[in-house]
Amino acid sequence: MGALNFSNDQHLIQWFMKTIIIINDGSAEAKHAGELALQIALKINANLLLANAQKTGVLTPVKEYILTSGNKEAGSEAFSGLIGYLKSLTPTDHPTDTFKPDITEIDVSAYHEKELIQLIIKRNIWMIVKGLTETPVINHETKPINIHGVLNRVCCPLLIVPAHFSIREFERIVYMADLRYCKIPILRHLVELAKPYDASLMVAHISAKGLVPIEDHYAASLFCETVSNNIKYDGLIFNNIKERNAQKALDIMVHEMQTDLVVVINHRFHFEEIMGRYITDILPEHITIPLMVFPC
Q1: Of the candidates 266, 257, 265, 267, which has an alpha carbon nearest to the alpha carbon of residue 289?
Q2: Domains in the chain, please, with CATH?
Q3: pLDDT tens by residue, 201-224
Q4: Which of 37, 47, 135, 190 is the least crowded, having the fewest Cβ atoms under 10 Å away?
């Protein structure tokens, strides 16, 4: 019998572990997005990979912390840069059996779009995270990343984190879709996120343009037949939204329903009403909570 190859086993473990990639351009928005990504990683047991888009040697130090017993105060170990900042936020006083994410980084400043896509596919990335603001500051040391072009070619979702979003745990997640085209694989992915938070997961039906609205009794029957029979999650709920304007519906979800995360599909139905035709470096002002965009 041949010797066991623990190295290969370790590679398999790493491949099956969830990994979240953070697009790090050295901005305050990237730092803010990193904070939310870390919170998610701790909840769902995922590792973090920082994709540093700034040229080597010019990565902006986010801030330096000196840690003692897990507190940000004078003491033993100094960190700098976004990777150091995120490591400084990782709890150090938890029991030894508590999951602690592996936080690593890679220089993608010389990558072309195709190379970043290959990295995401090869690493089996579970989610991409990017921070955005309404008024981005141009950084000539950072190579622009066409994040929409990347999203078009990968299988994992993109989480857009608004700069002014107050980081908090997810309690209410809403998947905005026309129920007639609701995708079960997306809901299964969302259950993996919602379950550790014990968050509600709502399918919010908004009829797509050109399609007639559906009546409540038919909607409830269709939801039971096509969705709830296939998704076993106690927090799964349904709402037949009568508002046909996606931006107005989003405003209701944020301010009246206290939604923490909205989910849409790239290039399908309500996406363009909310984001416009493409995801750019400028965040539309009406998006004030994280928006998760799945590839179509």
Answers
A1: 257
A2: 6-162 (3.40.50.620), 172-294 (3.40.50.620)
A3: 999 999 888 788 899 999 999 999
A4: 135
